[in-house]
């Protein structure tokens, strides 16, 4: 039998979920709150006016509905304006990952068919080199933090501030289909070209509503409420800066955009602007803790959400020692990204830190509307017993519906009607997700699965270890064997054998099997990282193979 | 130009916004939290199992997708289960307003074409009398709080608990169109028959997400967060109990359902169950404050949201004196209902109470995604200057799209593409809505508009006044003149002339015009109320006219 579908009366407004609606409430709640970037400082009323001005500038630059506008910028108020203005005129915002190799940047811009590029002075050399390969691009707008914009041979349409100054401060943003693409960006897998994910207005509005509830409603996870001050430390080009700029703007909190990430500047901004909430991948947080400015700053009360990779216990303890309130979230480029968060259980946040560590390091439990479980290699559900491993598959209202212009990998992503995260995890009977590894990084040795992250964690507990990566290398007898790269702490000295001995204590405690102890542990100067600061296991494997 | 619409890959799941999704997170966050009603007390895992059992019972009773199931119950765990199970099988939940006259109840049930009725013992006499006029009803399920269910000549399919006990505790709830009708209920206007409003799954999911953000994210309005304990005091049949049961369940908070509203029991439950958050119309809150149990209970810290009618200053002061944290929200049956809330401005909640009163009594500012403004009689926008009056018109993702089987009044509701609230208000330059009156209750006298609510408020400040209503009565010379009905406080004595004198002080202060002072002030024993406890101005006008 069919359900009864709601019947609209004549004139009834079928409210589409559009990004423009996210702007309504922040300005009403706190019209005088500030958006800060460098020497630029203005309030929510001005933010709204500037978004209107930018919309006019984009239209004047020939941008129509369905066109794609690329942004190449550090975290700035301009980027925030683009988060809104570009999709609000019906165009697609391409968040260019400027940390990819020049070839990959060029690939993504050509693949996304960018029409217009908003480009910061710092990326002029890059875009000048790429321009000949980008026939779809018909214009550039220059973004500059300097009094005199950098010189370029690109003939840009103008400098951003100058163009905005000449544009009208009101704009009648149109309604359109909520399933219109609002944003796109590229994710680099371990093989092949970067893949384009894309998110609709509807998806971003729903993600924002869920994000505000997630960050506000749980007493053990109270990261972003009306009186907080927000500063991202996950780049704005990376998965919508985890979606928080949209959430912060909807709520109407003060926002601080730090430009290029310089650890000392980040800490100064925290101190001087009264920042209370930031988020970043573990490597960025580690840089922060190690910087000069951090040594002379009281970091107490800074609420930090980490994700993108599991934090090591060592990092977590360092943060706790500095009085930082740290939490873990989980998501990926394909998921907009919010999937789960390390809410503490009721009452748990009143326990001594030691008893909170496990929960704070875990990926937590799925947030509202997220439906998620584990499957094994055969696609069968894996029990939630805290031990059994399986790949996380998920349904949520804000997952990419495929890869742009790549039907085949899109269908693989969605095999069986669930989105495959590529993450291997266990789930406790209490529902807590513990990410164990990327499915590609799991080391298959002697008939069992060894999680590289687990071994990395245990090695990182050794005082002489600053950084560590574990990968599987082909082995004729065992299929694969784990191999570790280790960067020593400053001034430390160590023989690989001492680390094997260190690991053997966990074997005798029954925490890991003896198969998990790497035969090959190499002391190195540095470990390859991806553009967003994660361990680059693909490159590590290549490097180890070639060595 | 068309926008670019997202393209789903093969297998991509187009996540519909369905009420079943609201159940995912509460159980994961706090599986052991309790749902309490009378002697019934169970946790979220059990709630989920019982919803599945109820779904089987409904299907076994012949309910298919698109059928309508009526509930006639006081606030209970059973009603909460129906909030989910009925729409989750694709049926429509008809919230029967049991406080309407029997004729009107019969009208609404026939008009809604109810198939099955879940009916509490207390309403057996009512439904037995109506049954012959309800050909669409083919079955009854009996709801009972007593050890032995009440006797009836209706031959019900069974008693609720007995039926649930015999049903399976898992159910594979289907997906369907998110625009399917989930709920319906009737609103009584000043003229004509009750009108049916209806809300889809999509609308209720969006309303819930906005509600959780609204109630959690604002430090000056922190009504419902993860550690709160919720008890409604707005009936569950009335506008989804303001939507809070869905929000509370999604969050996973403890919920207490108080049955029929007995003020002493409500206060006892507050004390014994650790209730922190409730909501109710001003008349219910007034009863609460006046009851015996309240006199011997420390009410400090009880967070009360009021709405449905503006609270009088007198009530607000009484609540403050008892240490109650009170706030005002605004919405109507047609709006699901959440439209705006009296968020205090940043910092304002730290001011002395006296300086918060105005903001706490106002309807506040619109919540996320709500777009709203004032129009005059000609449909033109009215300035937001805190003085100019206009009717509130609104767009939001959760407004009824019409009146059920009544295209004409639906089109009137949505005239010009905006939903007409029928409420006359001013909006301050800071965006704060101040409801002045129902457009039908505004008294047009001597060429100007006099707001009856304003006069009621000023009269209520007089110590001898317990309750007051002001209506317009036809007047040959002035068009209309205000007339006041006054119930005196217990033991008080007063001549009408003293109240006119009381009002003249506000005339000389310039707060009201002299036209606003009623010539006719009548001391009465009681003032007619609607089924939900509001002043029944329609009946008052009739009574005054007939007198």
UniProtKB/TrEMBL annotation, chains A, B:
UniProt entry tagged with the keyword Oxidoreductase: no
Keyword Calcium annotated: no
Keywords (A to Z) from UniProt: Ligase
Annotated AMP-binding enzyme C-terminal domain residues: 455-534
MF term (GO), any: ligase activity
A Pfam family this chain is assigned to: AMP-binding_C
Residue ranges of every copy of the AMP-dependent synthetase/ligase domain listed in the record: 31-404
Protein name: Fatty acid--CoA ligase
Species, as recorded: Marinobacterium rhizophilum
